[in-house]
Amino acid sequence: MGIIETIEEKIRNSIDIINIDIIDESVKHADHYFASSSILPSHIKLVLISDSFIGMSTLKRHRLIYELLKSEIGLIHAISLHLYTQSEYNSKE
After folding, report:
1. Average pLDDT for residues 11-22, to the nearest whole number?
2. How far apart are CA 29 and CA 65, in angstroms?
3. Cut 0.85: pTM above it
4. For 17-40, what is each residue's pLDDT tens digit?
5. Are 86 and 14 in contact (CB under 8 A)?
6. Are 6 and 72 in contact (CB under 8 A)?
């Protein structure tokens, strides 16, 4: 199982999700040293919609995901978190 699949599985097993999108953005950073020195994705964008985030500050949401994905985050160069409740996501469109 690849790192993206592992990330998705860990999130699905821990948080009630409405939608999850995990995008490998490594190609946008192909000229970075880290990107060329690893076979793993170097840059990942995570868009997660969950009503489990209701009442949570942005900082608390990020801490939750960082703690959950601690070992996976240590293997990549960067992860960009976009964490929304359903209503927050709907209002941004």
Report:
1. 97
2. 23
3. no
4. 999 999 987 766 555 555 444 566
5. no
6. yes
Query: ∠86-15-60 over CA atoms, to 5°?
Result: 75
* Token couple for 70: 């601690």
CA distance 13 to 20: 13
Q: What is the dihedral of CA 83, 3, 44, 17, to 10 degrees?
A: -20
Half-sphere exposure of 64 (CA within 13 A, CB side): 15
Closest alpha carbon to 79 in 11, 15, 12, 16: 11
Give the number of other CB atoms < 10 A from CB of residue 49: 20
CA-wise closest residue to 5 among 20, 25, 26:
20
Scanning the chain, the segments in alpha helix (DSSP H) are: 3-14, 33-36, 58-68, 70-73, 86-92
